[in-house]
Amino acid sequence: MRCFTVLGPSQTGKSTVVEKLGSLEGTPRKSSSPYGLNVTEFTFANEAWCALDAPGPNEALAHVQHALLASDACILCVSSAPEEAVLAAPYLRIIEASETPCILFVNRMDEPRGRLRDVIAALQDYANHTLLLRQIPIREGDRIVGSCDLISERAWRYREGQTSALIAIPESAAEREHEARNELLEHLSEFDDWLLEELIEDREPPSDAIYAISSRVLRENRIIPVLIGSASHGNGMMRLMKALRHEAPPVAALRQRLARASNVDDGKLAAVSFHAYHRQNIGKTVLVRALGEGLRQGASLGGSSLGAVQSLANGRSNSAVAPAPGDVFAAVKSDHLPVPSLLTLDAVVAPPEWTEPPTPMLERILVPGSERDENKLSETLAKLSETDRGLTVLQEESTGAQLVCAQGPVHLRDLCRTLSDVFHIDVTDRTPSPIYRETIAKPSEVHYRHRKQTGGAGQFADVKLSIRPNERGRGFSFSETVKGGVVPRNYIPAVEAGAREAMEKGPLGFQVIDVSVTLYDGQHHAVDSSEHAFRTASRMGVRQALSEGSAVLMQPVFRSEIHIPSVYSGNLVQIVSALKGQVLGFDRDESAKGWDIFRALVPGSALDDLARTLRSATQGIGYFSKTFDHFEELYGKEADAIVRAHETQRVEH
């Protein structure tokens, strides 16, 4: 079985392309995943094929990456409008990183919104590989009525719902065809000495030889050929499918590519798991592509027994049939198989680094509808994070509630729907509270005596403490300068413990940071003093000193790396400044052509707004990662509002 992925931005006709390709010689068999990955099996030229129709939203890029992990080649569908080329940038970035041989298909050429050469030029800004035209459109006025193949130098006229008709190259297209063909041959000659010599000697190379060279350079992933058509009318589909059949590499090439990327012996690679989801009453279903022989139900795979092997087309198990190399199948009751992963018979190998999904930008607290659901939610989210690497599950620091980090609002909505439909857990979501701290602005000294008599042995401890602001980022520190044994050495650790307890909540209601506490004097009682008494005295004394130390609210500041196509870079300084952030600088992204990386400091309270604004300003393409950098002071009305809101929330709970 040959396998390819069809990917690209939303509204570029990917699903229509798959449908038309699958219907060229019969009726395709289709299955769908809850995550939006559609699998279509069909036959073409007496060969079995599997098309993975990847979801279009940028928030589903993780599933696109995983589909490429199992694909011999891919088709990138793009718009015929030059100004929409930037929408393909994330997909070109993934294709380049994965080293997957790619055919670029400019769809909907029957409704062109710009010149083809402008579309290719705009897309080239995001591709290291040369985008090489293999066809040019034939026009009648403003309409595109056919295409001309630059290798065979034959022309076809489109016919609605039928195979295109072979025609002579129109005179109006002859000059353009000659110019484009020369450009094609010049690029191909860079990878073939024989062709270069033919061109130098001004000899016309035969079409068969050019097809062979073109096929080889695609299999070697040297160029990205460009084909055109209109899937909704069936135009260009046969040519596209023939290009896949003759030029896409076999499954052995995929095995070698994956082995090289993960430093594994390719002879040991048996399969690759690339997608998984949960189904009611069935459990986890893992989609696997066989890379070697010997896989069947009960056989060893990934260090444990492979569960029931099901056909994707009808969901039926057939334990008597062993998937052949290249076959795609569903494995049930194989929960030991992580997704995605490379699989030998005895072990699970981590996938290549390029499969790492973008950092989730949307953080939300999930609130279950009932106490029963609350007990199930944590376990269920752990299961879902195993099948969706774009999802991260944490706990909110202040409440311990379930905190999910999703790629965006669409991803979050799909997650909530899965919780309801499959696991019968209804949830609502809310924005998590930013993590604030407080410190003191001025030093103070306190003398605190703890005395308590309740019958029998009493409690006595007397401490004199100096509390001072620490330098930023140093945290809490404790020291002592007592002399003469006024506070016995065995009680000093209790004094430190009491001071640390006082830091858990300051006068503003938040954890206290960057404070130095020094014990410099005190008294003890030979009978009534104890560790408990000194810990209590220290805690109460420090709390009193904090209330006298001019408490200051501290907000978290995160160091963010913002990844965006260069065409959007001009707006970023204004976006960050509007969020009270600071741009530290930017560089070209060396790993992705046409992208920039901005480094900025952004307040934690503005991260949600940054995600929303960035999605809006970059048509959903830009994303950022963040790491905590430091806390900084926050004053004025904004600080007062935060303190009041925190107090109100505390009272309500």
TrEMBL record:
Top-level taxon of the source organism: Bacteria
Translation elongation factor EFG/EF2 domain span: 433-550
Domain Elongation factor EFG: 552-642
Coiled coil ranges: none
UniProt-listed Gene3D superfamilies: 3.30.230.10, 3.30.70.240, Elongation Factor G (Translational Gtpase), domain 3, P-loop containing nucleotide triphosphate hydrolases
Keywords: Elongation factor, GTP-binding, Nucleotide-binding, Protein biosynthesis
Pfam families, sorted: EFG_C, EFG_III, EFG_IV, GTP_EFTU
MF annotations from Gene Ontology: translation elongation factor activity
Family matches, as PANTHER family: ELONGATION FACTOR G-LIKE PROTEIN, TRANSLATION ELONGATION FACTOR G-RELATED
Function: Catalyzes the GTP-dependent ribosomal translocation step during translation elongation. During this step, the ribosome changes from the pre-translocational (PRE) to the post-translocational (POST) state as the newly formed A-site-bound peptidyl-tRNA and P-site-bound deacylated tRNA move to the P and E sites, respectively. Catalyzes the coordinated movement of the two tRNA molecules, the mRNA and conformational changes in the ribosome.
NCBIfam families on file: PRK12740.1-3 (NF009379)
Protein name, UniProt field: Elongation factor G
Protein species of origin: Rhizobium mayense
